[in-house]
UniProtKB/TrEMBL annotation:
InterPro entries: BatD
Pfam families cross-referenced by the UniProt entry: BatD (PF13584)
Signal peptide per UniProt: 1-20
Transmembrane segments: 440-464
Recorded superkingdom: Bacteria
Protein name: Protein BatD
PANTHER family assigned: BATD, PROTEIN BATD-RELATED
Keywords attached to this entry: Membrane, Signal, Transmembrane, Transmembrane helix
Organism: Antarcticibacterium flavum
Length: 587
């Protein structure tokens, strides 16, 4: 009896420990709310799961979400992971409602959350949506990963384009990558984006602006289901608030929002075994193949070049070119590889060329047999083979005065050297020497100048050292002088960049910031618009000049995401020069 109890207790402990490893729970922002309020529900897990299934949310309308947030931290060598799906709900009627169970699959096992009871009462006088700014940011900001083909063949190119969609109701001031995707089991190459371009489009049927943040070409190296990890960004979002400025304009509140593109699964198909050629080396795409000699008639001991070239669109860097085989009467050297490859959204395109140097060792006719190149065409789903023609070399007798290499000499032969006598022309046989005249150097002005020069240099170095030490101790003065120099530099740089929107507004913003550092003695971390306006007011700067300075800073921020014209840039530059001149007089 005691043995059975021990075994039962042991299995209960093991099973409970196994279940405790995965934590999946649902949390509601409130248990009781008015019919005119909103509810936030988070489904949080401590391990990454697949096939997330949300409940039906009976009695509510989904007005935001699902928004996905991923946190992956290492603290003292210990990994902490969390993944949250958030929904924003609006009740449809009064009453008591049950938010059902959400489901997730982790390592083949299904986990469910516990139901949540929520009571919806009559409308309240002052609705509270919890974090309303978060709700606005979540509803109007989306990071999407667009995949060209979710079911490719092995080694077939697919593209992943990451787009950040922003609604016209909000604006984005800055973003940074929190977690970059790792493309395991893929050969990957990023496509360089020289300048971010704001475009207009639609997201779920509504007009949006979007920016393409990253483009990547992937070639799967394994078959089966392969996962692409999500790209995660931290975005500073400016959302409208309930406050207004003195002119009646709506004030904006900055919210830091974390968005993720979501984990994507790629189902990679294996290449068919039926019809696979014997010489297939893994080329997938559409290619041309050509073998061409530089010439077919030559004398013995002369050389020719045979070019083996594959061109087209496909995995050009992931397979081997076929080898050139020559008869024993020809000497073949190792090929020199030439690559002319570029990568864009259509895949990897260009050509690979092996240049073989071939030298005949005796007179006669020598055939170089043709070679074949096989590749798999994913469009038609079939293998294709291209065969080159045989090359026939006509080798004539060796030129006069030369000897042909043979097996007896090991391919080494001598050539007579012609001595023309010109190699000794640099030796001069006659000289033109003249006596050196005597001059009185001691006591001359040159003599005394050279004597006094070391003392002058010593005193000059001492004076220079004292001046440098004084300047080095003046920390505040150095900071002001440096900021003044940078302000003038970037303002002139902004003038040179007129016409280039991004470079112009970056230079203009740096000039404004460095001017503030010099005049107000503040650091970059203190440069908020509200703080700057207070400091300018304390320095007795008139309100019109202060507002114009703040509007310049706003123009620099908005210009990152909103296209502007050449005339607008010229007006902003003239305004900046005028405002800085006015501030100089008043400060």
């Amino acid at each position: 009896m005691n043995l059975k109890l021990f075994i039962l207790t042991f299995f209960l402990i093991i099973s409970s420990a196994g279940f405790a490893q995965v934590k999946f729970e649902a949390k509601a922002s409130k248990q009781k709310l008015g019919v005119n309020e909103r509810l936030r529900v988070d489904f949080e897990m401590n391990q990454d799961g697949d096939n997330f299934k949300a409940p039906s949310f009976n009695g509510f309308t989904v007005v935001g979400g699902p928004n996905q947030v991923v946190s992956n931290q290492w603290i003292n060598g210990k990994r902490t992971y969390s993944k949250t799906y958030s929904y924003f709900l609006e009740p449809t009627a009064r009453g008591k409602f049950t938010i059902g169970q959400a489901e997730i699959i982790v390592d083949g096992d299904t986990y469910k959350t516990s139901p949540i009871q929520v009571e919806v009462t009559a409308a309240v006088d002052t609705p509270k949506d919890g974090d309303n700014s978060e709700l606005i940011a979540s509803d109007n900001l989306h990071l999407v990963a667009e995949i060209s083909n979710p079911n490719p063949f092995l080694n077939q190119a697919i593209t992943v384009v990451y787009k950040l969609y922003v609604s016209p109701r909000i604006s984005v001031s800055n973003w940074r990558e929190m977690d970059s995707p790792v493309y395991r089991d893929f050969w990957s190459q990023n496509i360089d984006i020289k300048q971010l371009k704001i475009e207009t489009g639609e997201y779920q049927g509504e007009p949006y602006r979007y920016v393409v943040l990253r483009k990547t070409i992937l070639y799967p190296q394994k078959t089966g289901e392969l996962e692409i990890e999500p790209l995660t960004l931290s975005v500073s979002v400016d959302v409208p608030s309930d406050r207004r400025d003195i002119f009646g304009g709506r004030l904006y509140k900055t919210v830091d929002k974390t968005v993720a593109a979501g984990r994507r699964t790629i189902n990679v198909k294996s290449l068919p075994e039926a019809g696979k050629p014997a010489g297939f080396t893994g080329a997938v795409g559409k290619f041309d193949f050509k073998v061409s000699p530089s010439r077919t008639e030559l004398a013995a001991t002369e050389s020719l070049t045979v070019q083996v070239r594959v061109s087209g669109n496909g995995n050009l860097k992931l397979f081997e070119l076929p080898k050139l085989e020559v008869p024993s009467s020809l000497e073949r050297y190792e090929p020199e590889r030439t690559e002319n490859v570029r990568t864009d959204l259509n895949g990897t395109q260009g050509s690979l060329t092996d240049n073989y140097t071939v030298i005949p060792t005796r007179q006669g006719k020598f055939p170089i047999p043709g070679i074949s190149f096989s590749y798999f065409d994913p469009t038609s789903g079939t293998y294709k083979t291209i065969n080159s023609e045989e090359i026939l070399l006509q080798v004539e007798r060796a030129p006069a005065g030369s000897s042909m290499p043979s097996a007896a000499t090991g391919g080494v032969y001598k050539q007579p050297v012609d001595f023309s006598g010109a190699q000794f022309k640099y030796i001069k046989l006659s000289t033109s020497l003249r006596p050196v005249g005597s001059t009185f150097f001691l006591g001359s002005w040159v003599f005394w100048s050279l004597m006094l020069l070391p003392f002058a240099l010593v005193f000059g170095a001492i004076a220079l050292g004292k001046k440098r030490k004084t300047l080095a101790n003046d920390v505040q003065g150095n900071r002001i002088r440096k900021a003044n120099r940078l302000a003038r530099k970037y303002l002139s740089e902004a003038k040179r960049n007129l016409g280039d929107q991004k470079a112009f507004y970056e230079s203009l913003e740096r000039a404004l910031h460095n001017y503030l550092k010099a005049k107000l003695h503040i650091q970059t971390s203190e440069m908020t618009k509200e703080h700057i306006q207070v400091l300018l007011s304390e320095k007795n700067v008139d309100q019109q000049t202060s507002l114009e300075f703040i509007s310049l800073l706003k123009s620099c921020e908005f210009a990152r995401y909103t296209p502007t014209s050449q005339g607008a840039m010229e007006q902003d530059y003239e305004k900046a020069a005028r405002v800085l001149a006015a501030l100089d007089k008043q400060l």
